[in-house]
Specification:
The complex is a heterodimer of chains A (about 425) and B (about 280).
Chain A: H1 3-6, H2 10-13, H3 26-46, H4 50-73, H5 81-105, H6 110-134, H7 145-148, H8 156-175, H9 177-185, H10 187-192, H11 197-215, H12 224-238, H13 242-266, H14 272-290, H15 296-324, H16 331-338, E1 343-346, E2 351-354, H17 356-378, H18 388-394, H19 400-413
Antiparallel strand pairs in A: 1-2
Helix pairs in contact in A: 3-8, 3-11, 3-12, 3-13, 4-5, 4-6, 4-11, 4-12, 5-6, 5-11, 8-11, 12-13, 12-14, 13-14, 15-16, 15-17, 17-18, 17-19
Chain B: E1 11-19, E2 22-31, E3 36-37, E4 48-50, E5 53-57, H1 64-71, E6 79-83, E7 96-99, H2 113-118, H3 122-125, H4 133-145, H5 161-173, E8 179-183, H6 191-206, E9 210-214, H7 218-224, E10 227-231, E11 235-240, H8 241-244, H9 247-254, H10 259-270, H11 274-281
Parallel strand pairs in B: 5-9, 5-10, 7-8, 8-9
Antiparallel strand pairs in B: 1-2, 1-6, 3-4, 10-11
Classes of the chains: A mainly alpha (about 425), B alpha/beta (about 280).
Chain lengths: ~425, ~280
């Protein structure tokens, strides 16, 4: 691909104005578009249509070039955005249709069919683009902006078109929120209650096509799919509610478009699409790392805490069992307990003992362990010496409802003959060969 | 061919269904028993008082789920049709509650248990109207009927398999229908859930509802269900469990497939394709 073709001087496009003059009305329009990408993209991702959107965007390129050539041949201004977007829509939808035909009748998997159309149409589009560039009127057409986007090239009538279409899509999603949610979650049930999933799918695809096509100028066809996916993934880290997910995705999309669009307008040779997508990617990275609950940090903290708790509870149990059998408490475990002041070193040569508090905690732990053992032995017909290891794995669960039900089940089965701290069903070192 | 009867909850007539031209159901004919009218001593005369629990039983790939989906119009039908209460599906959708297989949806989806149950009320709400307070209250009471009202706000992925199944059943309860079609409601659930679901199904039956379940566990069919439809891509037998679930019928349903019929079906699927054409002729 001709590198010079991809490069352009954004500053030139916004020349002649002050700092803000370069941003109005292109950046606000891009922000509305970003919001719509977030909202519609969330549905597209949940309906597993991300690859379809990417195919659609790439298949739009031949349409853009062809529309320019046809308009120029007819003596019209080929640079008119509505003309170019009409071409993009037609060829994008044709591309999706072709992928569908390949899948149905060519017995291709849908991802293979999409990828084939995506690649082929992008190749064809690039060839057509070079034809445009060579044509007498094509030199100034600036069609290369459709590859990586050029927010600054959005004129005020273009801005009205972009913001209008994008805004309309958001309104449609808001109006049909419950139907679209049902479609994405359970299309079969949607059909069973007569809510027309076929019709809703067509509506979703239409909105997807519209935001993709009007996004071509601002973000570019190579990266528009990222604006559909990244904001929604970011939002998924932050919430379990679809409506909130859409709002967050919309905000992330709008902010990324604003930041990226403004950066592109002020930095020569920085195309808008990459700047916008990079801004969105930063949001995603921040969410993936810092999101409460699902983020890397939060999960890491949980895992460390759980591991510590496991080591601590094992120490309590080993010490309790040793004391039960009149053996000295194992030193590597008493060390863990000493840090929390749960053991004391009696001077009278009796060695290290659990404090009353330590003993109470150990009783809780050992009770859970032996209840699980008893459950596995009595309900699961597990051999006693094979009950220890499975119990080890599950004894650290502290779901109070689960424990209460476990205790009730075991005590009911054994007719109330279980002591407060149950007996171990096996010898002290049974099943502990590896330890 | 059976004659339409407004009391018959589900009437399947000469139904043949194919996936990619390969038939999976061959000419299925079945009439689900109508609810038994109350005896004079019981409820009002003429009003149905007791429905039936009907199991669809058969080996893997017998077309059990397909039968439900085809009846509901979810998959295209090659031949034949299905009538509900003597009418075509589109006229009686509000009288049929469907419980799809649990595995058929993505449980990571960002909705709460209550949101899912409320979906059962969407048809009553109509298009465009958002979920209102009355629907949420009703959804809450349906969750209570499956004993998981305390989990209403949970994201559905954080529920156990049994709890997820209960959510699906609660969603069907929202429709308050006289006919329930359930795809494997007992599959992969814990013992407590199994008991809870069974109790609920019996309550529905005693309120004159008909419940048709795809069922996989032969041991429990006799205890759980009144009627059974034995299926293996064609109807093997249908009727009351005691007289239908015989050793001889099970032998036919589970013992060996009709290999020549399978090959014929494969040939139908391959016809018209470059790779399969030769096979069809051979």
């Amino acid at each position: 691909m001709n590198v010079a073709m991809l490069q352009f001087d954004a500053a030139a496009a916004s020349a002649g104005g002050g700092w803000l003059a370069g941003l109005w009305p292109s950046v606000p329009a891009a922000m509305v578009l970003g919001a719509a990408c977030g909202v519609v993209g969330t549905l597209a991702v949940l309906r597993q249509r991300a690859l379809m959107a990417d195919t659609l965007a790439h298949a739009a390129l031949p349409g853009v070039a062809a529309a320019f050539l046809i308009a120029a041949a007819m003596g019209m201004d080929g640079r008119s955005l509505p003309v170019l977007l009409a071409g993009a829509t037609i060829s994008g939808v044709l591309g999706i249709g072709l992928a569908h035909v390949l899948q149905r009748h060519g017995k291709l998997r849908d991802d293979a069919a999409m990828a084939a159309v995506l690649g082929a149409s992008f190749g064809l589009g690039t060839v057509l683009l070079s034809v445009v560039q060579r044509s007498p009127a094509g030199g100034q057409a600036g069609l290369a902006r459709f590859l990586f986007g050029q927010t600054a090239a959005i004129r005020s009538d273009d801005a009205v078109l972009i913001a209008g279409v994008a805004g309309a899509c958001v309104l449609v999603v808001a109006a049909l929120y419950k139907e679209l949610r049902l479609l994405c979650f359970d299309a079969a049930f949607c059909a069973a209650i007569g809510r027309k999933p076929g019709l809703l799918d067509v509506l979703l695809l239409t909105m997807l096509t519209l935001v993709t096509v009007v996004g071509l100028q601002a973000v570019g066809l190579v990266l528009i799919v990222a604006m559909l996916i990244i904001p929604s993934l970011t939002a998924r880290f932050l919430t379990d509610r679809l409506w909130l997910m859409m709002i967050i995705a919309g905000v992330v999309g709008a902010v990324s478009a604003g930041v990226g669009g403004a950066a592109s307008a002020h930095m020569a040779k920085l195309p808008a699409g990459p700047a916008i997508v990079s801004a969105a990617a930063v949001c995603l990275a921040l969410a993936a790392v810092f999101a409460p609950g699902k983020g890397v940090v939060s999960r890491w903290v949980r895992r460390v805490r759980a591991t510590r708790q496991t080591i601590f509870e094992h120490a309590l149990r080993r010490c309790y069992e040793a004391a039960e059998h009149g053996q000295p408490l194992p030193q590597r475990h008493t060390r863990v307990l000493a840090r929390r002041g749960l053991v004391l070193d009696a001077a009278g040569g009796e060695g290290v003992r659990l404090t009353p508090e330590g003993l109470a905690l150990a009783e809780q732990v050992i009770t859970r362990h032996r209840l699980w053992e008893a459950y596995l032995v009595t309900f699961g017909s597990q051999a006693p010496e094979h009950a220890d290891d499975p119990a080890d794995l599950i004894e650290h669960l502290r779901d109070p409802v689960l424990i209460r039900e476990l205790e009730a089940a075991v005590r009911e089965r054994s007719g109330g003959a279980v002591p407060a701290v149950p007996q171990s069903p096996h010898a002290l070192d049974a099943g502990r060969g590896r330890a | 061919m059976n004659v339409p009867d407004p009391n018959c909850p589900l009437l399947v007539r000469d139904l043949t269904v194919s996936y990619n031209k390969r038939p999976v159901l061959w000419d299925v004919d079945y009439a689900a028993p109508a609810p038994t009218p109350a005896v004079a001593a019981g409820g009002k005369a003429g009003e149905p008082s007791r429905g039936n629990l009907i199991a669809i039983v058969g080996p893997n790939g017998a077309g059990k789920s397909t039968l439900l989906k085809a009846a509901l119009g979810l998959v295209p039908v090659t031949m034949g049709d299905c009538l509900f209460f003597g009418q075509a599906i589109d006229r009686v959708r509000d009288r049929i509650a469907y419980v799809p297989q649990r595995e058929s949806v993505d449980w990571d989806f960002p909705v709460s248990a209550l949101d899912v149950v409320a979906m059962g009320g969407y048809r009553a709400l109509g298009w465009l109207r958002p979920v209102d307070k009355a629907t949420r209250v009703r959804a809450m009471s349906c969750l209570d009927r499956v004993r998981i009202a305390d989990l209403a706000g949970r994201q559905i992925g954080q529920l156990s398999g049994g709890q997820q199944q209960r959510v699906f059943i609660a969603r069907a309860l929202m429709q308050d229908a006289p006919l329930y079609l359930m795809d494997e409601p007992f599959a992969g659930v814990d013992a407590a859930t199994e008991r809870a679901i069974l109790t609920l199904l019996r309550t529905l039956r005693d309120r004159a509802a008909t419940v048709v379940c795809v069922h996989h566990d032969l041991h429990t069919v006799g205890n759980y269900f009144d009627h059974v439809l034995l299926l293996n891509s064609r109807v093997i037998a249908a009727g009351p469990v005691a007289t239908t679930l015989t050793e001889a019928n099970l032998q036919i349903a589970y013992g060996g497939r009709l290999t020549l019929l399978d090959r014929a079906a494969d040939a139908l699927a391959g016809r018209g394709l470059a790779s399969g054409a030769g096979e069809a002729i051979r």
